[in-house]
Amino acid sequence: ADGRFYTLGEIYRQAKNSLDSDDNKLRYVLMGDPAIRPAAPEAEALLTHINDVPLASVDQPTLMANQTVTFRGRIADAASGETLPEFDGVVNLSLYDADRSTTTNGHVDDAKEDPVRLTFDQRGTLLYTGNANVTGGEFSLTMAMPGQIAENFRPATVSMYAYSQTASVEASGTCRDIYVYGFDDSVSDTIAPVISLLAMNHDGFRPGDSVNESPMLIANVSDDRGVNLSMSGVGHVMNITIDGTRTYTDVATYYTPDVAESENPGGTIAYQLTDLAAGHHTARLRVWDTSGNMAERSVEFNVVPGKAPGIYEVYTDANPATTQANFYVKHDRPDSRMTVTVTVYNLLGQPVWSSSATGRSDMFITSPLTWNLTDNSGRRVPRGIYIYRATIATDGGESTSSGRKIAVAAE
């Protein structure tokens, strides 16, 4: 009634009671605090209209393949249901195909027994994901349906997550009041998508450069209508092929849409390759748009096992600094766990301050290391010019940046 999620203990209680006399429920035990609630957004993201038709109307919204669809919705307080007019931010909307049924193979210990097969429903595969701006608690997003969908006339799923850029408020929501079925043959599109970037580990990569044995393939793709993310059809699945022999078909899972809508909707692919052999390789990326037009691009690279990480840039957000300075390192080990060390020297080359942190990087930029302008003894350093260097270390080795200057000014 108050709009909050159940506690974990209450979730377990209701789940076990719903199973009646099923002894399997005795196999599950909650190990933790039963009073804790799931860490989930407390505001609600609600879908209100599809193609200007309210979801509460008697008309059943059915989305067809190849159709252009506009979603409208709002961010509401979970308890009162009222729109949050102060919510300005971004909403991510993901559309999944119609539900499908799966039957287990069954398993028995005794060969004389008949296997027990269970049939259960699963959410369909991802058809689309995109971002839109939220203004005054309301949003609108237009998408192009893929040309290939499952032929199941069953409910589909829209999942939404939103965050405010002006307040620490998050929202989530799900809509199951729609269907995905049929084909819209009125759309004609012959323009292929565009792959504007294809690189390994960093956008500063050049064809033929050396990389470690588990590099990340990075690509920027866009299309005049929409990039196809559906895995329902045959032959139009976004994929990466290495040396013409090894193909990865789950690439759409690693696609991130641009933050805001544009004339040509698109996004970024960040796909981690693993355990590549030493030597020369070629990676080919193929993407389709929602109308079945294909684009491909290839890049050559050289794998060097144990290659040390590369540093592209080291910088600070305050120069001159008066109270503190945050140091950042741009590198070529996206989303990797690494140890970052920043050391500050005076002009005599003597170390004044040093700090290290170990963690996972935010793609190409490390989390900041903060210097409060004191030396290793805790005393504030005199005003003047100092030199700082950064070192990053991963399992592949260690690299140190060249020195850069920072000025410390009086408070």
Biggest β-sheet: strands ordered side by side in the sheet: 1-4-9-8-5-10-11
Largest β-sheet summary: 7 strands, mixed, barrel
Order of helices and strands: HEEEEEEEEEEEEEEEEEEEEEEEEEEEE
Shape: globular
Give the termini distance in whole angstroms.
Answer: 52 Å
Mean pLDDT value = 90
Percent of sequence in beta strands: over 45%
User: What class do helices, strands and sheet pairing give?
Assistant: mainly beta
Count up the helices.
1
Radius of gyration: 26 Å
Uncertain regions spanning at least 5 consecutive residues: none
Q: Which percent range fits the helix content?
A: under 10%
Explain this structure.
- The protein has 411 residues and is mainly β.
- 2% of the residues lie in helices and 46% in strands.
- It has one helix at 8-17, and strands at residues 43-50, 53-54, 62-65, 68-76, 89-96, 100-103, 119-122, 126-135, 138-144, 155-164, 170-183, 194-200, 210-211, 216-222, 239-242, 246-248, 255-257, 266-272, 279-288, 294-303, 311-316, 325-331, 337-345, 351-360, 369-371, 384-394, 397-400, 404-408.
- It has a 7-stranded mixed β-barrel. It has a 5-stranded mixed beta sheet with strand order 13-20-19-15-16, with no helix packed on it. Strands 23, 24, 26, 27 and 28 form a 5-stranded antiparallel beta sheet that branches.
- A hairpin with a 2-residue loop joins strand 26 and strand 27 (397-400).
- The model has no long low-confidence stretch (mean pLDDT 90).
